Amino acid sequence: MILEHLRFRQRVSLLALGALAGSERAETDGHVARCERCRREVEALRALHETLLADPARSAEPDLPLPALVARVEAKVTETLAGRRARRAWALGAGLPAAAAAVLAAGLLLPRLVSRLLPRPAGSPTAEVVSPEAPGVSAAAMARLERTVAREQTARYLTDAGDVLVAVAAAPSDCDREDERVDVGAASARSRELLARRALVVDAAPQSVASARPVLDDVEQALREVASLESCVRRRDVERLRDDVERRRLLMRIRLMTRELEG
Amino acid sequence: MDRPVEPGSDRDLLARLAAGEREALAPLMERHYRRLYRLSLSYLRNADDALDAVQETFVKAFQNAGRWDGSADAGPWLSRIAINVAIDRYRRARRRQATFSPLGETDHDETMAGGEPSPERHALGSEVGRRIASALRGLPEKQRAVFVLRHYQEMSLEEIGESLGMRLGTVKSNLHRAVHRLRERLEGLRP
């Protein structure tokens, strides 16, 4: 009987709160009918339930009239939407110079590439001798342009990487409260994208971004750690990562290097 | 087959919010704000915090209306947002207190409330209200959330588990522990 009583102890509490249903409720009712101690327990908990029904919070009215509350919510929604639009505009604005430079560079570089890839007619002059693909643009100007594009792309890469690290550090939302796990799925996916982009934007012109190499290496390591996280990860793993980023002062170094690269 | 959407129903209002139609906020709030206020107040035990939590709940509802799948009622969906907002606000307040009041734990209500007491605060300040508030504040976070959703919102154990991201067994054990702690703390209290 004692063992049975222990087995039903939790269910008796739930029964008293009216939280059981179906067969679980029927079984517990059956046990309570046979157990005097459980009947007393149910009575005591029901009395507690009655007491708690007297809590003024159950019937409380908000201090603020509904129209005022609606106005507050609408104002907050407007503010949030304006913030989103501003961020989008900023992102577009920041992207435009780099995109323009990329288009310009592509326009200048494409004929050179095409002329190298297409078979030349016998006896035609080589590119080293004559440079028909970019009339009026000197080799030095072309090199400067390529360097500028590489540095701008690297700056954007670093800014995006910084955003990912900030998102991870800024207390991501819970995905499992019980196990204290947080959702880093988006940051992890973004890190993988950035690591793929790194090879294109950084390794393509290593000389142009040589001064950024130490920061780029640390950023790559941090991104690899984020990319390796599961989407629902223990909070302490994120805190460890954040501590590591702080210890290396990575966000500050990213900001300084971005400014330097953007000239 | 999809259920027809009645004009002015929760489904209709959330669909309009998802389409960015702000005018749908007022009727949705009118229908749910009292209940969500009481839920937030039950958890946070502070009128100003509860109002802020309701405001944040509806902002989040507006932002996430497109993610509501429409298969369930809007009420539990809004309650789920509200309890999670309340938990987050409580955690933030506790962190602030830990940062700015390192010498000892101060009473949440006294620290967070300000200005002249409203009739609401008078009501909450009654003996029963004070004792219940104090007993609830003494519960660990999970037990408190589970108890509030059961007692004040009458959610089923499954709905509570879904709202808080907990397994059913954990919901049951938390509710059992919560009710026994409250019983100890409210010994002798009569309405």
Structural descriptors:
heterodimer; A: about 260 residues; mainly alpha; three-stranded antiparallel sheet; B: about 190 residues; Rna Polymerase Sigma Factor, Chain: A; Arc Repressor Mutant, subunit A; 10 helices
Describe this structure in words.
The complex is a heterodimer of chains A (263) and B (191). Chain A is mainly alpha-helical and 263 residues long. Among the domains of chain A are: 50 residues, no CATH class; 126 residues. Chain A is 71% helix and 3% strand. In chain A, strands 1-2-3 form a 3-stranded antiparallel sheet. In chain A, a hairpin with a 4-residue loop joins strand 1 and strand 2. In chain A, helix 1 packs across helix 2, helix 1 runs parallel beside helix 3 and helix 4 packs antiparallel against helix 5. The longest helix of chain A is centred in the middle third of the chain and has 52 residues. About 7% of the residues of chain A have low confidence. Chain B has 191 residues and is mainly α. Chain B has 2 domains: 110 residues, RNA polymerase sigma factor, region 2, helix turn helix motif (Rna Polymerase Sigma Factor, Chain: A, Orthogonal Bundle); 66 residues, Arc Repressor Mutant, subunit A (Orthogonal Bundle), CATH 1.10.10.10. Chain B contains 10 helices and no strands. In chain B, helix 2 crosses helix 3, helix 8 crosses helix 10 and helix 9 crosses helix 10.
